[in-house]
Design goal:
The chain is of the alpha+beta class. The chain contains 4 helices and 14 strands. Helix content is about 40%, strand content about 25%. Strands 3, 6, 7, 8, 9, 10, 11, 12, 13 and 14 form a 10-stranded antiparallel beta sheet that branches. A hairpin with a 2-residue loop joins strand 9 and strand 10. Helix 2 runs parallel beside helix 3. The structure holds zinc ion. Zinc ion (ZN) binds next to loops.
C-alpha cells in the first residue's frame, strides 16, 4: 500500500524558442525514465569504453603475433638454407670417407668403420635447429674418425717410404752392362752372382739404397769389396774397387759414394761388379736397377 501510494514524481523538460513567435514546448517525463536513461547511458559508456580498450590491446597483440610469425618464417628460411649447405658438407664428407676407404683398400688396410652415412637424411621439409645440431655432432664424430684414419695412412706412407729408401732401386754407377747375372762361359766359367758395369778407373760407385756398411775388405776374386746391409734381409755388394769411401758400421744414404772403381780381384779391365742379395741368396740385380715405389713394393712380398 505504501509503495503504490507513493506519488509518482515527474520532471518537465521545457524547450523555449529564442524569439517570441514560437510557443514553448514542455514535455512531462516521469522520474523513473530519467533514472533509467542515466543508468543506460552509464552502461553504454562502460561497454563502448571497455570494447575500445580491449580492441586496442587486441590489435597490438595481433601486430606482435604477425611480427613473430614473420620472424619465425625468416628464421626457418635461414635454417633451411643452413641445412641445405649442411647437407652439401655432409655429402662431401661422405665422399671423402669413401675415397679414404678406397685408398685404404688399395693399400691393403682394412676399411675404417663406416657406421652411418651423413647425407642420408634429405628431408628439408621439417628442418629444426635440433636436427642441424645433431648433424653437426655426427660431423664431429666423422672428422675425428677420419683424422685417425689419415694418421694411420700417414704412418703407412712413411713406412713405405722408408722401406723404399732401403730397397736397392738405382744403378750404382751408370755404364754398359758388360756381363749379366747367371751362368756364363767366359772369361770365367761358372755362376755369375751379379752384374758387371763398365766404368772408367776411379769413377765413384754409389749406394743403391739406405743402409749400414757391413763389410769392407779384400775377398778372393772380388778384390776390394764393400757390402751394405739394407735390412729386411737385403744387402748389396760392390767389388773390384780401387779404394773405399766409407767404413764399417757407417750409415749410408741412397746415392752416397761408397767406393771407387778399380781392377782388384779377377778382372780384365776396370768395372764394377754389383750384387743384390736377399737372406744371402744372390738375386738378379737388373730387376733392382730402376725401381719406383710401386715396382719396388712388388718385390717386397
Ligand atoms: Zn762380375
Amino acid at each position: 500500500m505504501d509503495n503504490k501510494a507513493k506519488k509518482q514524481r515527474f520532471y518537465t523538460l521545457m524547450l523555449v524558442p529564442h524569439d517570441a513567435r514560437g510557443k514553448p514546448v514542455s514535455i512531462k517525463i516521469p522520474a523513473s525514465w530519467v533514472y533509467a536513461t542515466a543508468v543506460l547511458s552509464f552502461f553504454f559508456l562502460v561497454v563502448v569504453g571497455s570494447s575500445i580498450i580491449y580492441s586496442t590491446l587486441l590489435s597490438r597483440r595481433l601486430v606482435n603475433y604477425a611480427n613473430t610469425i614473420d620472424k619465425n618464417r625468416q628464421q626457418q628460411a635461414v635454417i633451411t638454407t643452413f641445412s641445405t649447405k649442411t647437407n652439401k658438407v655432409a655429402r662431401a664428407l661422405d665422399e671423402l670417407v669413401a675415397r679414404d676407404n678406397e685408398l685404404r683398400k688399395l693399400l691393403g688396410l682394412k676399411g675404417w668403420k663406416m657406421k652411418t652415412t651423413l647425407s642420408s637424411d634429405k628431408s628439408t621439409l621439417e628442418v629444426t635447429s635440433n636436427k642441424v645440431s645433431l648433424q653437426f655432432e655426427k660431423f664431429d664424430d666423422k672428422i675425428t674418425e677420419r683424422k685417425r684414419s689419415l694418421e694411420e695412412l700417414k704412418q703407412w706412407v712413411s713406412l713405405v717410404q722408408s722401406r723404399f729408401a732401403s730397397t736397392p732401386s738405382s744403378w750404382p754407377i751408370y755404364g754398359r752392362l758388360a756381363s749379366l747375372f747367371g751362368y756364363r762361359s767366359s772369361p770365367w766359367r761358372g755362376f755369375h752372382a751379379g752384374i758387371d758395369i763398365s766404368a772408367r778407373y776411379g769413377a765413384p760407385a754409389r749406394a743403391t739404397a739406405n743402409g749400414v756398411v757391413s763389410y769392407i775388405g779384400w775377398r778372393s776374386g772380388y778384390g776390394k769389396t764393400v757390402e751394405i746391409n739394407h735390412g729386411h734381409g737385403v744387402s748389396t755388394l760392390y767389388a773390384h774397387n780401387s779404394s773405399y769411401a766409407v767404413r764399417v758400421g757407417q750409415r749410408v744414404k741412397k746415392g752416397q759414394v761408397v767406393s771407387y772403381v778399380g781392377m782388384t780381384g779377377w778382372t780384365t779391365g776396370p768395372h764394377l761388379h754389383y750384387e743384390v742379395r736377399r737372406w744371402g741368396t744372390p738375386l738378379n740385380p737388373v730387376a733392382y736397377l730402376d725401381l719406383n715405389i710401386l715396382s719396388a713394393s712388388k718385390l717386397w712380398r
